[in-house]
Design brief:
- With 606 residues, the chain is of the alpha+beta class.
- Among the domains are: 98 residues, no CATH class; 205 residues, no CATH class; 62 residues, no CATH class.
- 29% of the residues lie in helices and 18% in strands.
- The chain has 24 helices and 19 strands.
- The strands form 5 sheets. Strands 8, 9, 11, 12, 13, 14 and 15 form a 7-stranded mixed beta sheet that branches. A 5-stranded antiparallel beta sheet has the order 10-16-17-18-19, with no helix packed on it. It has a 3-stranded antiparallel beta sheet with strand order 2-1-5.
- Strand 3 and strand 4 form a beta hairpin.
- This is Cytochrome c family protein.
- Keywords: Electron transport, Heme, Iron, Metal-binding, Transport.
- One of its GO terms (molecular function) is metal ion binding.
């Protein structure tokens, strides 16, 4: 095989100026864990050709994408092995340059996409996968099965046709020029049916070229085979594959904030599982399960369709049987676990869609979402089945909408049967000084991470107990490179028996416009500060006598558990007592009925 004949000659590769591409057959097999694999089976090209140009013709390569959506020539930008580097974990797979002694992401590279992406659309390409991972004798059945899953077909995102159909606007926007939803993924191209429908709702022209520019950057977020299973590593090698994806892979494997789940999780939902650099702003505590080396796929198992059909709902019961049973009998049985165990949410705090530049060209749908900040504590709402859950709520607007839109009658769940618990509320259309009518809505996204120490009683039940109002405070900083120089601000989210509303929206530092921009383009919230409201009863009610009784039990429990905790720690050699106390602690904290009696019984048995 001519690939290895050339690439295993270290002296020759050094003379050619590519010492980093030195590779032997043994190295490939060991790193990839694919015995007897040949280079052209994964990279394509001509494995029999001796001349480099012929050998490399049609060969697949990593896609380095710039801000204009162009695929850069790797040899011109970063002719080095693409391996983790630098201290910023969420960006450690991006090519680096050294500036003032510091290793920083290459300024020309926006995204890194692996070899199974279509170089025109950036979508996962089943035709490429059919020639590589899914070829006969390799993972043929796996690819056939994967193409039927929600992850491969990107079913839910592709269902969003316009700003209003079929289920209202979304933070990610509609599918501007994407494939229509299908049961089986068959191609990676563009389609313009949605583009035509979006034009009908718009007061401005919207060309196929503009739709394509938007869609290419949307496609970057969505996953293929290599996004999950390819993990280049400095110790394990550039060909390192994993059968079981790690949480780092689910979070984009260090390729920035707009690939895989960083876009949806860290930015949109404002969550984190890994914590640290994998939160926006950085520094959020990791989920307690991540600290115990539990990975996403350990809890979010595959569904009926197998690999790629990852379940949104994760079961706690396999690990926390006693706690789940206790919780199911408690006064809080109508709350999911996250309701108590999530204390703040980060990421986007405001999103404005307005005129701006996409791929260096004018576009009506520039997404000004980099109002990064912290919101807490999360507002608690009831889902489709009446169960309380924590949500992130933030105001949205999109300009130049043609139809008049009335407010929703209630919170609207995008998937009423419970496939997801994400919701929205249409506030309606309003006029501003520019960009015609603006469509306003509230984005309402379920939060599931990070699990940490539980919220205290008074976090939900304000004093006096008759005050059932919820208040979440959001502080943020605008950090986009269009619109204005960075500035800071904040607002509050109030939810009570009178409804839910955004209040006190303000910038706390001056807004200095960049040339050619207006406030309506990126900060339309300035003109609609009091408009984001919805009716309904969002109060958390409790009877005074009942609350005081349980609060007294909770306080006594805290004292008893602290005393027992110190006592059990002294018995560090008695594992049986430690295990019993851990189980007892989990049960009594999740069901206070009879909890003090359980504590007394445990103390007598010590």
């Amino acid at each position: 095989m001519e690939c290895i004949r050339c690439h295993s000659d270290k002296e020759k590769m050094t003379k050619l100026g590519y010492p980093q591409f030195y590779m032997t057959q043994e190295m490939v097999e060991k790193q990839s864990n694919h015995p007897n694999v040949k280079c052209h089976e994964c990279h394509l090209g001509d494995g029999r050709a001796k001349e480099p140009d012929k050998a490399h013709k049609g060969m697949l390569a990593v896609l380095l994408i710039d801000d204009d959506g162009n695929v850069l020539k790797r040899k011109d930008v970063y002719p080095e092995p693409l391996l983790p580097s630098g201290n910023d974990m969420i960006r450690n797979m991006l090519p680096k340059v050294r500036y003032n002694g510091e290793l920083l992401p290459h300024p020309d590279v926006r995204n890194v996409l692996w070899h199974d992406r279509n170089p025109e659309t950036f979508n996962f390409d089943p035709d490429i996968a059919k020639k590589t991972c899914g070829k006969s004798g390799c993972h043929f059945e796996e690819l056939k099965q994967f193409k039927t899953t929600i992850m491969a077909t990107n079913f839910r995102q592709r269902t969003m046709r316009t700003w209003l159909e079929p289920y209202g606007p979304h933070n990610c926007g509609p599918s501007f020029a994407d494939l229509l939803p299908s049961e089986v993924l068959r191609s990676a191209g563009f389609q313009f049916k949605n583009t035509e429908d979006i034009r009908k709702e718009l007061n401005l022209p919207f060309s196929k070229e503009q739709a394509t520019a938007k869609q290419k950057f949307c496609n970057i977020c969505h996953a293929g085979c290599l996004d999950c299973h390819y993990e280049p590593d400095r110790k394990k090698g550039v060909h390192n594959f994993t059968n079981k994806p790690t949480s780092i892979s689910c979070a984009g494997y260090g390729r920035g904030t707009s690939i895989c789940h960083p876009g949806a999780m860290q930015s949109r939902r404002g969550e984190t599982y890994i914590g640290g650099d994998y939160s926006i702003p950085t520094g959020m505590n990791p989920d307690v399960h991540y600290k115990k080396n539990i990975h996403c796929v350990d809890c979010h198992t595959t569904g009926e369709k197998g690999m790629g059909d990852m379940q949104r709902k994760a079961s706690c019961q396999d690990c926390h049987i006693e706690i789940e049973e206790a919780h199911a009998k408690s006064i809080h049985k109508n709350m999911d676990c996250a309701t108590c165990h999530i204390s703040e949410l980060r990421g986007y705090q405001i999103t404005v869609w307005g005129p701006g530049l996409i791929a260096s060209k004018e576009n009506p749908f520039k997404k000004y979402s980099l109002y990064y900040g912290i919101q807490g504590p999360p507002i608690l709402l009831k889902d489709q089945k009446g169960k309380w859950m924590p949500v992130k709520i933030w105001p949205h607007s999109v300009g130049n909408i043609k139809p008049d839109v009335r407010p929703s009658e209630r919170i609207m769940f995008r998937w009423p049967n419970g496939e997801t618990r994400d919701a929205y509320y249409l506030v309606g259309t309003f006029n501003a000084h520019a960009n015609n009518k603006h469509l306003l809505w509230l984005e309402i996204q379920q939060a599931s991470h990070p699990y940490g120490k539980a919220r205290k009683c008074e976090s939900c039940h304000k004093k006096p107990i008759q005050n059932s109002q919820q208040i979440a405070v959001s502080t943020w900083e605008f950090m986009d490179n269009q619109g204005a120089e960075p500035f800071k601000g904040g607002h509050r989210i109030i939810a009570d028996k009178h409804g839910l509303r955004i209040m006190d929206m303000r910038n706390t530092t001056p807004i200095k416009l960049l040339e050619g921009y207006r406030l309506e383009d990126f900060a339309s919230w300035i003109f609609f500060k009091d408009k984001w409201q919805m009716s309904g009863d969002f109060s958390i009610k409790a009877k005074k006598e009942k609350y005081n009784r349980y609060l007294l039990i909770a306080n006594k429990l805290d004292n008893e558990l602290k005393i027992l905790d110190n006592y059990v720690k002294d018995k560090d050699k008695d594992k049986r007592i430690q295990k019993q106390f851990k189980e007892l602690k989990g049960v009594v904290l999740h069901n206070q009925d009879g909890a003090l009696e359980r504590i007394e019984k445990f103390k007598k048995e010590l």
